[in-house]
Amino acid sequence: MSATPDHTLALALDLLRRGQFAHARAILEDCPASPRVEILLAHAHAGCNRVQEAARLLCRQAVANPGARHPAYDMLALLLPHDRVDEAEAVLRAVRQRARQDIRTHDMLGELLLQRGRTAEAQEILADGLSLSPAQLSTGNLMAVCLMEQGEFAAAHDLLHYILKHHPDSAMTQANLAHLLGAWNRLDAALQAHSRALALRPDDARLRMNHALTLLKNGSMAEGWAEYEWRRRMPGRQRLPEQSMLPVLSPDASLHGRSILITREGGLGDMLMMLRFVPVLAGMGARVSIQAPETLHGLIRRMGGVRRVFSERVSLPPHDWHCPFLSLPHVLRNTAGHAGLDVPYLRPSPELVRQWAPFLPMGTDLRVGLVWGGASRPDVPAAHAMDRRRSIPLRKLAPLAGMPGISLVSLQKGTYARQMHDMPAGMRLYDPMESVRDMDDTAALIAGLDVVVSVDTSVAHLAGAMGCPVILLDRFDNCWRWLSGRTDSPWYPTLRIIRQIHAGKWEDVVHRLCSMLAKRDFPPARTPDDVHGQS
């Protein structure tokens, strides 16, 4: 029997990558049996929800190659981009049922459940794997991540040290230990673990980037921003020529007549935070163009010194230098403007402020803007997991409902806004957000509020950049942007932080929030006149 031609297998693989599983299956079922055909056919069966057929073929090929990567990993890479998560989980459960002694089956299912936020189920699966091999490198690291997700930092710490006793040269385990210690706010120990990981893999851009974030969280800004430049070596991160990247500027540098393109990077909060550096470049004589999401365009145009703002759908304009948003602190580190423009550096449109005023509560109550959830991104597991930790269920904010002299205004967008359909008893939320088109509208609403209460989202950055009072409700394993052990922010002088004392526990945070609101215990708003008066 002749072998299947390579072009046929290439066609089948292309169909699988495009999510055309039934078409790929029809082609492969007519091919002579071979390992390559069986693996591709297994993936096609999985995409067609033919669970047992997929599991049988995957297990047969896994047994034939016990030391290789399990073929079901490739199945996940093909199914998950097409939102076939349920089919993938069903196949992994069937594979595990057929081959419980193969520890790889526990790893794959445990990792998928972990990515989906089902940490208790993942822990049970991974515990079965560790019962087969207590010091298994991959299983132990996954279990440590699972424990950390549940706030069990001490147990995760002990497990990683146990794994390191058996695998002392595992850079992955040292890096996970560093991440754990950083999230646990034990930053000196985290930096030591980073050093051990980098001694093993000094040119690993991802390890270097994670090291940078710990330095920044520790307040080592100059060193952290320099180290953070390693991110541009990661696949897909550096899209423009390195030779035209804006270099670190000298103290007496002049940019007169030079055109600089600032490229989109990070989330909305990152870009809002970095916009403080744009007037510095303009003040040095640069002609600045900015690539940014359309929701920010109105705010950016009012900053001054920006010749053009455009979205990613538009061709890049001619430029002498380019610089991604998050490289601005590094390239300006030696200049007089290394800290960026003082707050407020973003201003709402006066016309929009007038238009939105009728949507806000009248009277003498304290007008409190409220954001309780982030942007859920189920397609990005790490971001989705972080979002679950930073967001507060609206029901946990029930104590706000009984506070006199407080009017609550929702600034919440996205899936978390649906929680208003089941609000805590007695809570009333003014909700103008259905008509909000962009961050310019949001800024106009914020201008009519007395204080913004927000979890770690772009709205906190926006209000802070406008010089509005902000109370940030922050998770225990906080982001580097808010540093460690501080209740204030060097980025936004009108922002105060209430951080979880215990991972996942919001009750104390809400109690302290109510106390601050009752006492009006937050910084006053800052206006452009305040800034000029200080200069």
UniProtKB/TrEMBL annotation:
Q: Where are TPR repeat segments found? A: 171-204
PROSITE patterns named in the record: TPR
The yes or no answer to whether the keyword Transferase is present is yes
Tell me the Pfam families matching this sequence: Glyco_transf_9, TPR_19
- Nucleotide-binding in keyword set: no
InterPro entries (UniProt xref): Glyco_trans_9, TMTC_O-mannosyl-trnsfr, TPR-like_helical_dom_sf, TPR_rpt
Keyword annotations of the record? TPR repeat, Transferase
Q: Which Gene Ontology terms cover its molecular function? A: glycosyltransferase activity
User: What is the protein's given name?
Assistant: O-linked N-acetylglucosamine transferase
**Organism expressing this protein natively:** Komagataeibacter diospyri
